[in-house]
Specification:
The protein has 236 residues and is α+β, with helices and mostly antiparallel strands. The protein is built from eight helices and twelve strands. GO terms for molecular function: DNA binding; DNA-binding transcription factor activity.
Length: 236
């Protein structure tokens, strides 16, 4: 019986540098003066878990930046099933695409865990960008990174197995909200198996079975709805 490291199970899934850069905290990429002048234009509001912040098809006149908590961005399929696009973590802006032209929202945004949010009106946001053109470049990079993510996900959904899509998702979440704890990497968000399934277009039962198999292989463990990746573990 041979023993091989499972590092390759994760490392073979390339995450584009453009998306990794775009997924880093937006507020941290601003200069102190830029951040201060942006946030002084904002109102801070608190929202409880499951609150819908905006819906697809409704005109949008605000930009949101997450201060604390977690927000889920998703669309609805014709069947009514959620198709989760990404999760916003502290420092992430959302609701951006519809603000410049005040067009209809393209997606839904729902509070995943109790959240505090910076809310910036369209007028204040456009005034800020007019005086800080460098930030416009940062926002364009963020939008392009998200677009790349969605196109990459769509491409891989037709060419990869469900297990490969799940592994790729775990690697992406590791980059977005991973936290090193010893030799493990904790994906620091309490995802349900249904939410994981909604991110890769699989059934909850399939995801449950695959996660159990991965635990048996020793490449991850699940504790209190947190997934701990073990990139340097070994299995037989």
């Amino acid at each position: 019986m041979s023993t091989t490291t499972t590092t390759s199970e994760y490392e073979r899934f390339h995450i584009p540098a453009e998306w990794v850069a775009a997924s880093s905290c937006f507020l941290d990429r601003l200069k102190p003066m830029e951040r201060e002048q942006l946030l002084e234009r904002a109102d801070i509001q608190s929202f409880k878990r499951n609150t819908i912040l905006f819906r697809a098809g409704i005109s949008g006149d605000k930009l949101y930046i997450l201060k604390s908590g977690c927000v889920k961005v998703f669309q609805l399929a014709a069947t009514g099933r959620e198709m989760i696009l990404w999760f916003c973590m502290p420092g992430d802006p959302f609701g951006l695409a519809s603000v410049p032209q005040m067009g209809p929202r393209l997606v839904f945004a729902q509070v995943r865990s109790d959240a505090s949010v910076y809310c910036i009106s369209r007028a204040n946001f456009l005034d800020f960008l007019a005086n800080h053109p460098r930030v416009s470049g940062e926002l364009i990079g963020l939008l392009l990174g998200r677009l790349y993510l969605l196109s990459d996900t769509l491409l891989n959904s037709s060419s990869e197995s469900t297990e490969e899509q799940l592994l790729r998702l775990l690697v992406r979440l590791q980059h977005q909200c991973g936290r090193h704890i010893g030799k493990e990497i904790c994906i620091d968000i309490d995802l349900t198996q249904q939410e994981i399934a909604d991110m890769i277009g699989a059934s909850r039962q399939t995801v449950s079975s695959l996660l159990n198999q991965m635990q048996e292989r020793g490449i991850l463990r699940i504790h209190r709805r947190r997934i701990y990746l073990r990139p340097s573990a070994e299995s037989s």
